[in-house]
Amino acid sequence: MDLKTRLKAWCLDFRIKQALAHTGLLVTLMAYTVLGGLIFRHLEHPAEVDRLSSLQSSLLHRRRHFVERIINNTLVLENPLEYVFYELSEYEKLLEDAFAEGFQSSHEQEISELEKWSFLKSVFFSSTVLTTIGYGNTVPVTVEGRAFCIVFALIGIPLTLTVIADMGRLFASSLSTLMDHMPKCCRCANVIKRPSCYAFGAVAFLFVYLAAGAGFFVIWEEDWTFFEGFYFCFITMTTIGFGDLVPKKPKYMLLCTVYILIGLALTSTIIELVRRQYLQSWKQLQAMSGPLADTLRKMADNAPGIDVSAFQNDLKKVLTVVTMPKRLTSQIDRYGKRQKQIQWEDAVESVIRDISNGTQEKQISPPVVKIVIYESSV
């Protein structure tokens, strides 16, 4: 087997190992989420059934009691209106608790229709814990469930962040590869503005992803509008998680979990791209301040009578030099940071020499000798 064939085989083996590593992380997170959902259901479901059954019995009993007391006592009491208001307020307090648990007063419901700790809902809850979204519509109420939630989050949140970061790197590398193989007609012509174009394109792709999710949620949740679906997707992908809008159809919750996980990876990648763009702009401003300050100081020392038009031309030179690091990206990758620093210093010194020579030739009046007298209190 020649060297070329062995190199190809090694590259193929390396790519397979990389794919297995990425897939292994994702499968581990999915298994951990399902396991957490099963444990949450085991800890919380019995207490939930007991609570709902007791509340349903109390609601039916209180309703019957309210009707009987009104019929039997309103005709014999001196002040029946006050008595009715009292009985009604007691019944309304119980109704508030029943509505909070999902009961409807129009008809009797089965306990299974009101369960918040079914298998799919429990898995969805565990995913909101791991992603730190935390809608708040479903929470553990038992001591065991809350204690397990702490341990589950301490182990699972770092794992989730690792998976999201790994997926983010995959998306970022895929985006870079896509940009490199993009036809020239579709690329940004201005090399300096190209990173900004890429960041803008990434943000636009995120909004397309959010819009696609909103369209699916409009189909899944019949009472949602497109804007409500888009609002839910944005609040979820940014991990704000108000909890005012939450999917209610259990059969779609696994798909919703996968959508959220991919969306979080996309969001983190795009936020990182935008952050890098801001950081690059800030570094550019910082780099600009140094050469400008040196130039202005030398100009003030060497040429009191300076021509404004010449100053404007020299300022354009300085601004051109400031943008040079972007144009020298290939050389930076080749020779390292030291080469970048040397080129930067040479360029700045060249501009300063040009400015000093030009201003000395255009000098109108001789330099003024300044005598500074220092006075001390000793």
Automatic annotation (TrEMBL):
GO cellular component terms, semicolon-separated: plasma membrane
Domain Potassium channel, chain residue ranges per copy: 114-171, 205-276
Keyword Membrane among UniProt keywords: yes
Transmembrane segments: 20-40, 145-165, 197-220, 226-245, 252-271
Annotated membrane topology: Multi-pass membrane protein
GO molecular function: outward rectifier potassium channel activity; potassium ion leak channel activity
Gene3D superfamilies found in the cross-reference section: 1.10.287.70
Localization (cell): Membrane
Keywords on record: Ion channel, Ion transport, Membrane, Transmembrane, Transmembrane helix, Transport
InterPro entries the record matches: 2pore_dom_K_chnl (IPR003280), K_chnl_dom (IPR013099)
Primary site of residence: membrane
Name of the protein: Potassium channel domain-containing protein
